[in-house]
Fold this sequence. Notes:
The protein has 334 residues and is mostly helical. The chain is 60% helix and 0% strand. The protein has 16 helices and no strands. It has helices spanning 3-14, 40-49, 52-56, 75-92, 97-106, 115-125, 132-143, 154-161, 172-195, 206-212, 216-231, 241-259, 268-284, 291-298, 303-312, 316-327.
Amino acid sequence: MTIRESMEQWEEDYLSPYAAKSRKSKGRDRAEQECDIRPVFQRDRDRIIHCKAFRRLKDKTQVFLSPEGDHYRTRLTHTLEVSQNARTIAKALRLNEELVEAIALGHDLGHTPFGHAGERALNRVCPLGFDHSEQSVRTVERLEKNGQGLNLTYEVKDGIRNHQTSGRPHTLEGKIVRLSDKIAYIHHDMDDAVRAGILTEMDVPADIRAVLGSTPGDRLDCFIHDIVTNSMDQNDIIMSERVAEAMRGIRQFMFEHVYTNPIAKGEEAKAEALVETLYHHFMKHADDMSEEFLDLLAEGEPKEQVVCDYIGAMTDRYAISLYNDIFVPKSWQI
């Protein structure tokens, strides 16, 4: 028996009957020889961590655009916090930790520069539309490894595709990540907003604080304990109605006071204009794109999609630098 086979047997013996088992995965688009050490979901996690799109997350906006402070979250630190929340819940429920980790680490790989501002801009100007969840799947299926993709399992791609509020994951592990994403951004966006002086903990309505607590740690503890308690030995991932209602309340509070706050989001109009301008430029000058994206055009991919692929993959810093190179006049030198 190989190490992988012994680990697969451990899953069968120990994990919940509702857990996704590596041995029973629906598989990959392209068949591969099995690893003798790692089960399939562990291999997927490793592929995501080592891919270029994952490394670029460190320079992509979470909420605060290009923050100068060292402690504000980026898209990468958000991803790591989602992963940690998801693993804590999965471990307590005896679900598949490696699957939730792979989904969590991959869920935002297709996010644009400047966070949701960049996503809105591309969705507005591209006739094909743009959604970061679908772009994350496209990233692992098509864009990584020079057009070969990462060839991930069905379960990981399903969880990535369905991680937003409207999603319907087919595994309990995907449902955990879907909730863990919300828990993470409520937790850290509130923490960052307090750090930025945009609001204080006491600004949160008293009825919400009475349920969730009055500190980021209290809220995180409340959410995770509530999910574990209510989902134990259930074929679903659920919260109590009391905590779920409080989550909806604080999420609405964050939209009103942070996500649409003119102080926090004052530069987003500029970011959207920058992204739109780059889109129109590359639609007219597609040959200016990198070689790997020109290869996609040569293979028959729609230009609108490939331009979105190119811009969507950029970091905040690279998008600004490229915009300056193209559109900002340089001083004349002899």
